[in-house]
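[Protein data]
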Amino acid sequence: MHVHEPCVPSVAGSTLLVGAVPMVGTFHAAGTGSPLYKALAPAARYAIGRLAVKIAVSGAARDFVAGAFPGEYRVIPNGVRISDYAPAREIPKKPGRILFVGRAEPRKGLFVLLRAFEQIRRSRPDVSLALVGPGWAEARGARSGVDRRAGWPLAGVVALGRAGHEVKVHEMGQAEVLCVPSLRGESFGLVLAEGLAAGVPVVASDLPGYNSVLDGGALGQLVPPGDADALAGEIVRLLDDPARRARVVARGIRAVERYSWGTVVGEVLQAYEDALAAAPVGCRSRLVRSPRRRPLLVRTRSR
């Protein structure tokens, strides 16, 4: 049984407490501390102790849970279907296009990007900003700190709202920069990996989870969280330097194979095998194949 966020007191946590099969747990959260872990420490310690294999999606996620509950955690990142994003590399770029993909909640930092975009437009009136996720009302609600004298909608901003996968890939193909300005609480950053697969340069906040995906800045540009001035400056430098963008994209396309499902699935299956190997005496496992020819691990109890 594979349980995600095993200590959350819901279906996942309840399952882990009563499950009677070998269990693997994946931890996704990151941050500086968890009131939930403190409040539920005895139950969480017992639950984590029942895991045969413990997985964290990044070093940041590992450090977060291991800080409260030390132990061995193997890092297996979230997976990306690279073939779904590779077509974006063939789409003609729209000069000066910046892209944001995500929700408009404060933690995602959209208001920081809007401030930065306002600064960029003063010297580069040709730039544009596409928002995939927020609609106009949500974008306006995230407008904190933007010059209130500016008209609304802001010139150069396109809010596409909740869009399908095809729209997201098309916008990644058109963008010259993908901006991910989150403020906190990001353990991995799936959209960063998607951007690397799509061949679009990334500018992101220097959070531990993002730093890991971008290899300390080798695969994208990192700026202090919440710093609109630094964000604007880094975006402009990338927009003004096509050769630099090309180098970053080439490195990203090579490195993103680390997050391909072809790599990730093998590591997850190994975790299942290790969990089965740790099963009590009297239990056995067998490997069967589904009609789709994908391996399924099924545990049976011997009589």
Q: What stands out?
A: The chain has a mean pLDDT of 86. The first strand starts at residue 2 and ends at 4. The chain has two domains: 2-79+260-301, 82-257.
